[in-house]
């Protein structure tokens, strides 16, 4: 029997959690940045 | 070394000249007032031709020049990369393919120059006041452009004709240097021409009357310049890849020997890869350009996306959907080239469902042109269920999912001839699967969020979607690269492709050409009845937005002219490789 850290489903579950945290973080960062009073526009006018 | 210095210093000096000399050229003459406002032409200031409208003539010539220019500038960009891949991998196939791509490009170069010359003559003849003003704003830069064009020709011919002479060792690196130089000059040329277009759309470096207030650099560096530069740069790569892909398909279908079929199949696959690689980030560059247009003038943005031009975006969605379906179909056929490919075939139907579903959402219009009876039958001007799909959050979600799944098609083909040998292969695959699932859910969730939030954040919610798509592509490529580094490679049977797959490669340049014509028209029409937006009015008889039908006819006509030219160029390239046997050779042999 394969050791538990080699179990595909365990890795899959951990990966799901990790990616969820990653995407949640970037969503949060972008949406916070968009609501900052300084603005987030890239180009000088 | 001396040679390398000459090759580096000479173009650098020319580039510097192109930017600085214009001001030295005219500003030195005190008799020429440089701070005059823009002239305001009257209808009498437009010389007209009897048999064709000036706008149509300039439109056709400009579009034709752009198609050819995009192709000629794009090919050397990826040819240098392929040549470098050949040097690094020591595989002569890359070098042969790169050289063949250049041969096609060389044949197209003179047509590019000729159409450019015709466009310039037409512009100065039919719109002298506008061209006089632009020449005053950009001064001698237009001559700098001509100088760069000559340099481009010199580099192109040198790069192409020295291929055999500079083949090995340090000479090969010199040849690669020439290629880099050619691309530096070509890209500078495009950036210069872009600045004239974007000045007309969003003038900078001038006051409200059109009088210059600063340097040429300020006139060049308008708010739309860099977004357009990036958008055209990426689009050119995708376009060039699509055209050489059609060449490979043409040669594949006419090949007699299995070796030639294998070579052109591989060439077709590489071309499709280039086209899709250029295409994947393109919607994001387009989105940036559109956001800058909105930021510059909300009215201009609404003219594009919500006014008379909005319907053309639906046609654009049709064409881009066609491009994605064709590129994916080609990749799915490619799974037949390997023995392991069959195990991925069951996934194809799910990718197809996402692509077709995304395509349908993308082409759903928001505002319908309805008869009173239809409004009554619908119970309003919008469909109760499908109506929300006409809004941008749904379309952004659709397009991002389509891009993600196109990348998945690539990944499946890449894996189909590689068997991972690392111990963590199954865990790696599980991590990639989780990435796709969570990433796609995030794209959908950000799309739904777009419906629940005020307009300003609705637009903003597309940013997490873009980042999700890019994250999926980047991370899964990284994991795959690590996992398949020492993979056991299985045989790829190049040439084992059905003939119908090659027609997908023909669809790509046709749809690309059409899309470029269509979107170019939209970009240019955003100025409505202004030559230079808010500064110089167009008072010619053509200062109106033509009907969608008329636009479609003209764009289709230019597309057909260009495709005719391309077929001629392909035929020329093939002709140059043909050798007529001696008339008596057959008798001698027998």
Distinctive features:
heterodimer; A: mainly alpha; rod-shaped; B: 590 residues; two-stranded antiparallel ribbon; two-stranded antiparallel sheet; 4 strands; 74% helix
Strand count of chain B: 4
The percent range for strand residues of chain A is under 5%
Give the overall silhouette of chain A. Answer: rod-shaped
Distance between the termini of chain B: 55 Å
Interface with most residues: A-B, 21 and 25 residues
Mean pLDDT of chain B: 88
Total of DSSP H or I helical runs spanning 4+ residues of chain A: 1
**Physical arrangement of strands within the biggest beta sheet of chain B:** 1-2
Strand content of chain B: under 5%
Radius of gyration of chain A using CA atoms only: 19 Å
* Low-confidence region ranges of chain A: none
The main β sheet of chain A shows up as: none
Uncertain runs of chain B are: none
Set down the secondary structure blueprint.
The complex is a heterodimer of chains A (45) and B (590).
Chain A: H1 8-34
Chain B: H1 2-27, H2 54-89, H3 92-126, H4 128-138, H5 141-161, H6 169-201, H7 216-220, H8 225-254, H9 258-279, H10 282-296, H11 298-305, H12 310-334, H13 345-362, H14 372-378, H15 392-416, E1 418-419, H16 425-451, H17 455-460, H18 462-483, E2 488-489, H19 499-525, E3 530-532, E4 536-537, H20 548-577, H21 585-589
Helix pairs in contact in B: 1-5, 1-6, 2-3, 2-6, 2-8, 2-20, 3-4, 3-5, 3-20, 5-6, 6-8, 8-9, 8-10, 8-19, 10-11, 12-13, 12-15, 12-19, 13-15, 15-16, 15-18, 16-18, 19-20
């Amino acid at each position: 029997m394969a050791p538990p850290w080699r179990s595909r489903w365990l890795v899959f579950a951990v990966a799901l959690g990790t990616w969820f945290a990653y995407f949640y973080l970037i969503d949060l960062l972008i949406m916070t940045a968009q609501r900052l009073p300084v603005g987030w526009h890239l180009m000088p006018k | 070394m001396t040679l390398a210095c000459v090759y580096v210093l000479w173009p650098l000096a020319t580039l510097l000249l192109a930017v600085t000399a214009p001001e030295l050229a005219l500003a030195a003459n005190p008799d020429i007032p440089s701070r005059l406002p823009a002239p305001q032409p009257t209808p009498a200031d437009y010389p007209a031709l009897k048999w064709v409208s000036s706008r149509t003539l300039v439109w056709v010539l400009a579009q034709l020049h752009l198609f050819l220019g995009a192709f000629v500038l794009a090919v050397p960009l990826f040819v240098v990369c392929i040549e470098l891949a050949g040097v690094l991998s020591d595989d002569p196939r890359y070098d042969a393919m790169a050289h063949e791509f250049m041969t096609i490009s060389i044949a197209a170069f003179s047509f590019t120059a000729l159409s450019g010359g015709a466009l310039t003559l037409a512009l100065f003849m039919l719109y002298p006041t506008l061209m006089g003003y632009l020449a005053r704003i950009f001064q001698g830069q237009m001559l700098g452009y001509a100088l760069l064009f000559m340099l481009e020709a010199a580099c192109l011919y040198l790069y192409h004709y020295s291929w055999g002479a500079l083949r090995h060792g340090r000479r090969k690196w010199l040849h690669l240097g020439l290629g880099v130089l050619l691309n530096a000059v070509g890209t500078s040329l495009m950036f210069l021409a872009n600045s004239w277009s974007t000045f007309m759309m969003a003038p900078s470096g001038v006051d409200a009357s059109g009088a210059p207030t600063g340097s040429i650099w300020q006139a060049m560096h308008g708010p739309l310049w860099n977004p357009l530069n990036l958008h055209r740069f990426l689009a050119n790569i995708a376009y060039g890849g699509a055209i050489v892909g059609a060449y490979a398909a043409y040669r594949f279908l006419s090949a007699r020997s299995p070796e030639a079929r294998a070579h052109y199949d591989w060439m077709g696959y590489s071309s499709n890869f280039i086209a899709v690689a250029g295409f994947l980030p393109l919607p994001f560059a387009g989105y940036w350009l559109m956001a800058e247009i909105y930021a510059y003038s909300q009215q201009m943005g609404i003219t594009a996306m919500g006014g008379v031009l909005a319907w053309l975006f639906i046609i654009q969605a049709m064409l881009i959907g066609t491009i994605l379906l064709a590129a994916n179909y080609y990749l799915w056929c490619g799974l037949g080239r390997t023995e392991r490919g069959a195990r991925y075939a069951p996934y194809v139907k799910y990718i197809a469902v996402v692509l077709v579903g995304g395509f349908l959402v993308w082409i759903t219009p928001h505002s319908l042109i309805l008869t009173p009876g239809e409004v009554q039958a619908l119970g309003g001007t919008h469909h109760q269920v499908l109506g929300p799909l006409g809004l941008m959050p749904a379309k952004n979600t659709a397009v991002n999912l389509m891009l993600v799944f196109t990348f998945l098609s690539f990944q499946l083909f890449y894996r189909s001839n590689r068997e991972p040998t690392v111990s963590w292969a199954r865990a790696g695959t599980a991590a990639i699967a989780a990435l796709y699932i969570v990433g796609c859910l995030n794209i959908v969730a950000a799309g739904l969020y777009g419906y629940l939030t005020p307009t300003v954040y609705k637009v903003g919610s597309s940013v997490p979607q873009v980042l999700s798509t890019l994250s999926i592509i980047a991370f899964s490529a990284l994991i795959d690269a690590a996992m398949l580094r020492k993979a056991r490679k299985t045989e790829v049977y190049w040439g084992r492709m059905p003939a119908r797959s090659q027609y997908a490669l023909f669809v790509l340049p046709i749809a690309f050409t059409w899309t470029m014509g269509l979107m170019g028209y939209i970009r240019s029409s955003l100025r409505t009845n202004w030559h230079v937006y808010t500064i110089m009015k167009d008072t010619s008889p053509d200062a109106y937005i033509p009907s969608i039908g008329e636009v479609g006819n003209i764009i289709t006509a230019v597309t057909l002219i260009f495709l005719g030219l391309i077929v001629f160029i392909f035929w020329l390239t093939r002709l140059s490789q043909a050798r007529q046997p001696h008339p008596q050779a057959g008798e001698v042999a027998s």
